[in-house]
Design brief:
Elements lengths: L7 H8 L2 H11 L7 E5 L2 E5 L12 E7 L4 H13 L4 E4 L18 E4 L6 E5 L4 E5 L4 H10 L2 E2 L11 H6 L18 E9 L7 E7 L5 H4 L8 E8 L1 E2 L2 E10 L3 H11 L4 E5 L4 E10 L8 E2 L7 E2 H16 L3 H17 L4 E2 L10 E4 H4 L15 E2 L11 E9 H17 L5 H4 L4 E6 L12 E9 L11 H14 L3 E2 L19 H11 L8 H6 L33 E5 L7 E5 L11
Parallel strand pairs: 3-5, 4-5
Antiparallel strand pairs: 1-2, 2-3, 6-7, 7-11, 8-12, 9-10, 9-11, 13-15, 13-19, 14-15, 14-22, 16-18, 17-20, 21-23, 21-24, 22-23, 25-26
The structure holds 2-acetamido-2-deoxy-beta-D-glucopyranose (NAG) (5 copies).
């Protein structure tokens, strides 16, 4: 899930083009491209993600794409490919995962897209359950549930994800209450199509519920078990929420962070370390008789004029190339205050933001993504990260840190910021560090303990060999989160380094592999990337010139950074075991001691 992009708010504010913009949008909003492009109808295809680039910038190929419209067709597709021992991967409508989960190995693979597996099959208002096909988007799930008076209590904030995709990557919202914020922990039934032997016609539908021992593997599977065809959710009666964003300084964040999550059901925090601010989202269920018809249309997920996107990106590129840290800090303050003033896109009545609290029905507040609305194809407006126009291009480092380590991690980051106060202004241009609560799960590849997920989005150069401003600080925070504090990477985000040794942090990874072996013994749904992530092959990190700049490796030699541009491999400043690409100046020109 993207969660970005809000510098456009700045320009929006400057131009005050909201009205014109809305009208334009009704006519000319451009939908995201299909991530799959085939040169001959459905064959000779390439696939990318919605950002147009994988961490290693490779282009993934597949010989063919199929578009099943029902489970029956899906079974036939999997059977045919299994019979010929063909590699397969499941693709989704928009392809939001950053890592290469969607790529089949080689060039002969088959892509099975769930684009047309998007039907709501059954809504049982009495039992409060809902059965959908795996290509249904979160938006559709929320809307269909609401029609029956039901709600999925916790979910990611971006509604362009499909339910199959968000389960596969363990996506979540923010809560420590009840079963917690992971969507997969609200699943009560799954149907998954896997390869099979000739006696079963080469494919079979496995029907799982929560008493089935394989459910904990299938709920978060990285797509390597087969194709999930149907999912049944346990929902709740629809309810109202009351949201207040409270801005405070961050001096006691380390102490407050854990406590806050226990105080409010839908709590989250947005941290702006260089500004020394945190926004605490005080967010709870309230009685439905409280008045308010609030709506969330998050500014960073709205259709945005391509012209603004290009201007914002250009100014970011110029600030980077001129190492203008002050410029970034000025921009980030304007961006943040503009967003705050606009309630981040919240309105009290669906029209205007008059102040907090914003009270409204959960289904209108829990997620948004209006930039997906797309009456016609043009390039005048787009989602802020749409690669077909000049727009945002970033890395996302998203790591869950166990609650017992959160305090120390936050203090370490604050110590780093005390040394380099302007370092995180660049990240604040992407609306700071989003901190979401997530609970331990029984899913084998789910969270191992209650945690806070720290979600950081920051500048990525179009040139893989160009370091970013405060490169070393970002790398040090990333390595601290992952290695000093043993954080778990979000499966659908992150750069390669985050997955280095990650599987060892899962107590039941062997159980997961046992199920994988049983469901897909030939590994037809696996790829080199998934094997590497699951620890079955080495090579999750890639060693080459400049590799540390893109998070493909942790530097161990200067050449992994950009010595010709003054960036050398050095220890971290707070976390001494970190190895980061540091720009050498007269202050820190010490030799490397590895
Ligand atoms: C596949 O597409 C590429 C470029 O899009 C082209 O060079 C190649 O010849 C095509 N191959 C086949 C078998 O059509
Ligand atoms: C399913 O997706 C297709 C393609 O995006 C769309 O045309 C169709 O209306 C969708 N169907 C449902 C039931 O949402
Ligand atoms: C779970 O599935 C099994 C069959 O696999 C069935 O016997 C059992 O009744 C199901 N349990 C629930 C709660 O649906
Ligand atoms: C932060 O706020 C607290 C009160 O909430 C105050 O005591 C403290 O001095 C403030 N710190 C800074 C650096 O402004
Ligand atoms: C709202 O409902 C609560 C019970 O849920 C009740 O105590 C309260 O009096 C009601 N308020 C109004 C204004 O009706």
């Amino acid at each position: 899930m993207p969660r970005l992009g809000t510098e456009t708010a700045l320009l929006r504010h400057v131009f005050r083009s909201q009205c014109v913009f809305l009208i334009l949008c009704m006519v000319w909003c451009s939908p995201p491209d299909d991530p799959i492009k085939c040169s001959a109808q459905t064959s000779n295809c390439t696939i990318t993600n919605s950002y147009g680039a994988f961490p290693d910038r490779s282009v993934c190929q597949a010989a063919e794409t199929v578009y099943p419209t029902s489970e029956k067709e899906l079974v036939a597709v999997v059977a045919k490919a299994t019979m010929s021992k063909r590699k397969m991967k499941v693709a989704t409508r928009y392809s939001h995962s950053i890592p290469k989960l969607v790529c089949p190995d080689g060039e002969e693979g088959l892509l099975i897209t769930t684009k047309y597996l998007n039907h709501t099959l059954e809504v049982d208002a009495a039992k409060m359950t809902m059965k959908v096909e795996s290509g249904v988007t979160l938006r559709e799930l929320i809307n269909q549930a609401a029609k029956a008076g039901l709600a999925l209590p916790y979910a990611p904030y971006w509604w362009g994800l499909t339910v199959g995709g968000l389960l596969g990557t363990g996506a979540h919202g923010s809560s420590l209450w009840g079963k917690g914020s992971s969507v997969h922990d609200h699943v009560i039934g799954l149907r998954i199509v896997t390869p099979a032997g000739p006696e079963d016609g080469y494919a079979k539908v496995r029907v799982l519920n929560n008493s089935h021992p394989d459910m904990d593997a299938a709920k978060v599977s990285l797509g390597v078990l087969g194709v999930i065809s149907q999912i049944t959710f346990q929902l709740q009666p629809i309810f109202k929420r009351s949201i207040t964003n409270l801005v405070k300084n961050d001096s006691d964040l380390a102490d407050e962070a854990v406590r806050f999550g226990n105080q409010h059901e839908f709590a989250d925090m947005t941290w702006y370390p260089s500004q020394g601010k945190v926004i605490y989202r005080i967010d709870d269920r309230v009685s439905t008789n409280l008045s308010g018809n609030g709506l969330n249309d998050f500014i960073g997920f709205r259709s945005t004029l391509s012209l603004s996107l290009a201007l914002v990106r250009s100014s970011e590129e110029i600030q980077e190339s001129t190492k203008n840290a002050d410029g970034k800090c000025i921009s980030s303050k304007i961006t943040t205050s503009t967003l705050m003033g606009g309630g981040f896109g919240l309105t009290n009545d669906g029209v205007s933001f008059k102040g907090y609290p914003v009270i409204g029905y959960h289904n209108r507040l829990q997620a948004s993504g209006s930039c997906l609305d797309s009456p016609r194809d043009s390039h005048i407006t787009a989602c802020p990260w749409d690669p077909k126009v000049k727009s945002q291009f970033f890395h996302q480092t998203t790591v869950s840190i166990g609650l017992s380590n959160v305090k120390n991690f936050i203090q370490d980051v604050q110590e780093l910021i005390a040394l380099e106060p302007k370092a995180m202004c660049g990240l604040e241009l992407y609306d700071g560090i989003l901190m979401r609560y997530v609970k331990a799960s029984s899913a084998y590849l789910g969270k191992q303990e209650d945690a806070i997920d720290f979600d950081m989005t920051y500048y990525r150069s179009k040139n893989p060999l160009t370091p970013r401003l405060f490169e070393d600080i970002y790398e040090e925070v990333e390595q601290m989160a992952l290695f000093k504090y043993g954080g778990l990477p979000h499966w659908g985000k992150n750069r390669n380094v985050a997955f280095d040794g990650a599987i060892k942090k899962y107590h039941n990874s062997r159980e997961f592999l046992r199920v994988k072996e049983a469901y897909d013994p030939l590994g037809l749904f696996s790829s080199q990337w998934t094997d590497q992530v699951l620890g079955l092959q080495t090579g999750v990190t890639i060693i080459k010139e400049g590799c540390a700049l893109e998070g493909l490796c942790i530097c161990s030699q200067d050449i992994h950074c950009a010595p010709d541009k003054g960036y050398f491999c050095r220890p971290g400043r707070v976390y001494k075991d970190a190895r980061v690409c540091t720009r050498l100046t007269s202050h820190n020109n010490m030799p490397l001691q590895l």
